[in-house]
Amino acid sequence: MKWGVVFLVAAAIVSGEAWAADPRTQDAPVTAMPAVQMFGTLPDGRAVRLYTLAVPGGWQATLTDYGAILTSFLVPPKAGAAGEPVDVVLGFDTLDGYLAKHPYFGAICGRCANRIAGGRFELDGKSYTLATNNGPNHLHGGGAGFDKKLWQATPRASDRGPAVEFELVSPAGDEGYPGRLVAKAVYTLTPAGELIVEMTATTDAPTIVNLAHHSYWNLAGHASGSVAGHELAVAADRYLPVDATSIPTGAFAPVAGTPFDFRPERNPWGRCGAAIETLPPDAAPGTPRGVDHNYLVRGWEPDGRLRTAATLRDPASGRTLEVLSDQPGVQVYMGNFLDGTLTGKAGTVYKANGGLCLETQKYPDAIHHPDWPSVRLDPGQTYRHTMVHRFTR
Fold first, then answer.
1. Catalytic residue IDs
2. Are 216 and 243 in contact (CB under 8 A)?
């Protein structure tokens, strides 16, 4: 069989943790296996592939085993309406775009997503030094984090929809982290168009883990420009203020009366543009603007239950994305550092605030705050993190 030809892979059943299923998916028939095709080769000659999950009605997610990246997500028009499906995530048409420097488009970030102050931490009295790849701090796993690794992929058919399981073995000492870690990320597309992301990890020695899915969403379409007109609701009464290097200060600050107030009970919901124009305050021209902060998910408990973390809406198209998760925090990032230097899919130039990230996770720099939800993982434990992306049109 030639590499350029799309082919199907033997079926298997996805196993996973319980999740808050959309009733639209109940009693749904098993859908087709993911389609697989070549995406390119790494400099060392290893093959990189694309996996397409599709369900009736026009919903489609495309992923690659490089970085376990979501490269596209197609939202079809409303039933009976004219029009073509719209791709609502930023990314590239070719592997070369992902191999070059980019801001984690669609990737699984780890071992420890977000920032660690000074690139250092202690565990059981031993100090560990990590890459400082974001000013003085460590970001998203370092210079060659999980977003830059080739994962092992297993396409599956499941009673929830087509799925692909990505697995990565991170050896002890990888990017400075202790312990051999086995990480998995399972993407499933349901007949209702939900994208489920289930992340797990185990270790053979004490380590730290905080995985995050890092898609840039633009519900008007990836090529439509700024998300300033999008409406946002974040189920949080408090957020984490940060210092000049984007490390949390340790305070839990109320959102009320600040540009960070996106509480869902606000009527109307807050517009992203208001925060983009306001933050950072008194900034010089050209300073990246918008939210890049972690919010404390309202009512979170370490019980594994899914809770709505945030909801994004494009008033012009009527498309809405609700993100549910079992994690205590959600990083809201408004694409502040997109600067027009990246050319993405279909020749689109991605400019400032061209996409918005909703990264559920434990709080950034949590290893330096013993009273925060812990990022520590010990042998015999399993790290678990589930997200559900639920769309309406």
1. 214, 359
2. no
